[in-house]
Fold this sequence. Notes:
- By secondary structure, this protein is α/β, with parallel strands linked by helices.
- It has 3 domains: 211 residues, FAD/NAD(P)-binding domain, CATH 3.50.50.60; 110 residues, FAD/NAD(P)-binding domain, CATH 3.50.50.60; 114 residues, FAD/NAD-linked reductase, C-terminal dimerisation domain (Enolase-like, domain 1, 2-Layer Sandwich).
- α1 runs parallel beside α8 and α3 packs parallel to α6.
- It is globular, with a radius of gyration of 24 Å.
- The chain starts with a strand and ends in an 8-residue tail after the last helix.
Amino acid sequence: MKIAIIGGGPGGYVAALKAARLGAQVVLVEKEYIGGTCLNTGCIPTKVLLNSTDIYHQLKNEAGALGLEMDNLKVNWKELLARKELVATQLVEGVKNLLRVGGIEVVEGVARLISGKSLQVDLEGGGSKRIDFDRAIVATGSKPIVIPIPGHDLEGVITSREAMSLEEIPKSLCIIGGGVIGVEFANIYSNLGTEVTIIEMLPGLVSNMDGEIVQCLEDALVESGVKIHKSTKVLQMEKVDGGLVVTADKGNEPIRISAEKVLMATGRKPAGDDLGLEEVGVKVERGAIQVDRLFKTDVDSIYAIGDCTGGVQLAHVASASGLMVADLIMGERMAMDFRTIPYAVYTKPELAAVGMTEEEAVEKGYGVKVGRFPMYGNGKAVITGDVRGIVKIVAEEKTGEVLGVHIAGTTATELIAAAALAIRLEATVDELLTTVYAHPTVGESIHEAAESVFGKAIHLP
């Protein structure tokens, strides 16, 4: 079986490794860099910046309370950026080595399908190469959405990619968009002392997550000095006295925000342009490749996974889809359980969620019981001094089945794996209660929240 994969991000390279392990002859075509946006300019680099700036912020503001004395603590921005590059490079080189060891041919260039059985690559060094295949997997990811607001092309208006490599820490930053990307960069730069303003068109930040846990983050951002304007529409950006001024409409009340830089964090869209998809019979709607539940397109030999399909734009979803498709092509059968997709925001407090929100469960007709436990009641959270947050469990009233878990607080993005497994195994609240948790751990808060579902929490007054 010969498989051609277009795109070397977390969907494409994982599919390549899995297919090769199962005996396929695999060719992986990548036009820019192995590891895709996630490893090079997205997930990994941003988390390096979040981690370092969080440590800096905590030591600067809480060292005394932790029993530490700090003299002359400061940020070496160039070294921090160098560490970000080092971590990304280390992980990318690890992936490249896995591809080499796996016997996967990597072709650098821009691919275009010319039939349901072949593609052509315009090689990076010049010339072209034809690749024939039995099956193809398109995994071209996504790219930033740049809304054509007047002034969006001015110098100093940047995307997330540029925001990770600025020559200097800006004194002020206006972020247009209060989704995951927007709040993570607000956290990074506010930690560094930048005056940050978020403008969000919707009524709330990170609108795809439970409002109660998002409120914990919003409170923390405001406390750190971030100004937040919700239900606000940006009208224009303009250059004024060497800086930028953003004009916006907040409920028919015009506001003007001055900033050194403006970050367009207005989401991402599928990246599947100029692949020859429609010419070979693959259906594309609004830039998104259309697939069935097994990720097959209208052409039997061509599959598509990850962000380019317009579905859930998360690296771990792309990877899971890549594993599934590789198995399917090679004669295995593995179905994804979309109920267990975790969502994570790596701010302080961290946000994480899996399953249904309370509102979604009610809309679907479930009788719902909800349990909550605040992080300030958790021993490990008190030890770390990071007590902002809550664990919220949504359960079916009659059976006690866990429908959703939503966490704000320290290590939330780690804890959510246990919650995803609980939902995958159709666990009940009683099964969470009869599981023994190590002490002291933040994980005990899940047990306490489970107790509170039916009013049995003993560590709540």
